[in-house]
């Protein structure tokens, strides 16, 4: 087989694996979240359908695929229909530039567990994942529902604001590593525990985690759904498969965020002592993913004005100061 044919086949298989694995993980994440929240709140969680309630996933899937698909009257039907697709597609596309595991050799060929190893990976991920936010806004304004419009607009304002916080935090990382490539940033941290960027950029780490919670619509910083409204925000009018597409995109973005934090700040897929890099990548990403559920169970929902004040009066000034101190440290 020629090198080009092997490359084309390899890329095609990688795409299929990413779609299959991450779509499945998004479903498993809903089960994990329900069980973890139940444990935190002294409830049982899913336990009736199958052992430990695992078959509840199949029951939910059947329900979503067979539920009536309702499109509201007087809605913008085309935009209403494509908004969930935008959310899911953009979330999966952003995974193309994220290295999942260390490279390995197969049939004499070096396999890189990344679909597209591009030099501007961080810019690509920020751009593609940013389009997911517009799916939320489009779904809200196309629904012909005042609560959906308010939820979508409120979410878009918060996400655009916190994108500045996340971008400023990432600029500090790029200044230290000298690269936008996630592979190069991972290699920068290959000298042991204290080469991890969480120790060199602790403030950037905290800022990026907070921004990520906003951008993935997670409590306590989620503004798409307001508890006082007693409705589902932008997704109030969605049902069945279209509703599930939004949440497949959301959970896929959460997984991508956990991988990003691991690669940017927690040493990535480098070996740690006697533990292989691929095991470290899975363990660290799983632990970071657990933070989403931990925060949802432990903290109350913040008001929209509190979230926005925190962004402009606290986080953005801190991000700018962090950039200045990083630049001074590099110069000195």
From TrEMBL:
Chemical reaction(s) catalysed: a quinone + NADH + 5 H(+)(in) = a quinol + NAD(+) + 4 H(+)(out)
GO BP, sorted A to Z: aerobic respiration
EC annotation from Swiss-Prot or TrEMBL: 7.1.1.-
An example Gene Ontology molecular-function term: NADH dehydrogenase activity
InterPro entries on file: NADH_UbQ_OxRdtase_su1/FPO, NADH_UbQ_OxRdtase_su1_CS
Cell compartment(s), UniProt: Cell membrane; Membrane
Pfam family, one: NADHdh
Transmembrane regions listed in the UniProt entry: 78-101, 121-143, 155-181, 193-214, 246-266, 272-295, 307-331
GO CC annotations on file: plasma membrane
Topological relation to the membrane, as annotated: Multi-pass membrane protein
Keyword field contains ATP-binding: no
The keyword Oxidoreductase is assigned to this record: yes
Main enzyme class: translocase
Keyword terms of this UniProt record: Cell membrane, Membrane, NAD, Oxidoreductase, Quinone, Translocase, Transmembrane, Transmembrane helix, Ubiquinone
Leader sequence residues: none
Subunit and interaction comment: NDH-1 is composed of 14 different subunits. Subunits NuoA, H, J, K, L, M, N constitute the membrane sector of the complex.
Role this protein plays: NDH-1 shuttles electrons from NADH, via FMN and iron-sulfur (Fe-S) centers, to quinones in the respiratory chain. The immediate electron acceptor for the enzyme in this species is believed to be ubiquinone. Couples the redox reaction to proton translocation (for every two electrons transferred, four hydrogen ions are translocated across the cytoplasmic membrane), and thus conserves the redox energy in a proton gradient. This subunit may bind ubiquinone.
NCBIfam families per the UniProt record, alphabetical: PRK06076.1-2
Protein name: NADH-quinone oxidoreductase subunit H
Organism name: Campylobacter cuniculorum DSM 23162 = LMG 24588
């Amino acid at each position: 087989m020629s090198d080009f044919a092997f490359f084309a086949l390899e890329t095609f298989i990688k795409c299929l694996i990413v779609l299959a694995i991450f779509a499945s993980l998004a479903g498993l994440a809903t089960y994990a979240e329900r069980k973890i929240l139940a444990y935190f709140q002294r409830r049982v969680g899913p336990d009736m359908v199958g052992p430990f309630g695992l078959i509840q996933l199949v029951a939910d899937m059947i329900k979503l695929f067979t539920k009536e698909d309702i499109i509201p009257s007087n809605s913008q039907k085309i935009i209403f229909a494509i908004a969930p697709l935008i959310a899911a597609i953009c979330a999966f596309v952003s995974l193309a530039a994220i290295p999942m595991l260390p490279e390995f050799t197969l049939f004499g060929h070096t396999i890189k567990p990344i679909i597209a190893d591009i030099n501007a990976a961080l810019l690509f991920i920020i751009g593609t994942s940013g389009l997911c936010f517009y799916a939320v806004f489009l779904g809200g304004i196309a629904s012909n529902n005042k609560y959906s419009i308010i939820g979508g607009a409120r979410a878009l304002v918060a996400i655009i604001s916190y994108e500045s916080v996340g971008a400023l935090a990432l600029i500090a990382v790029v200044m230290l590593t000298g690269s936008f490539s996630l592979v190069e940033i991972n290699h920068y941290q290959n000298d042991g525990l204290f080469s991890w960027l969480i120790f060199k950029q602790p403030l950037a780490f905290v800022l990026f985690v907070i921004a990520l919670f906003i951008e993935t619509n997670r409590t306590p910083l989620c503004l798409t759904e307001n508890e006082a409204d007693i409705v589902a925000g932008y997704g109030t009018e969605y049902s069945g498969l279209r509703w599930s597409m939004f949440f497949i995109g959301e959970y896929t973005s959460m997984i991508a965020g956990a991988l990003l934090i691991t690669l940017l700040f927690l040493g990535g897929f480098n070996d740690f002592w006697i533990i292989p890099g691929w095991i470290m990548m899975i363990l660290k990403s799983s632990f970071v993913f657990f933070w989403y559920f931990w925060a949802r169970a432990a903290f109350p929902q913040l008001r929209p004005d509190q979230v926005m004040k925190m962004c402009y009066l606290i986080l953005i000034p801190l991000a700018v100061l962090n950039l200045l101190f990083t630049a001074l440290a590099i110069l000195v």
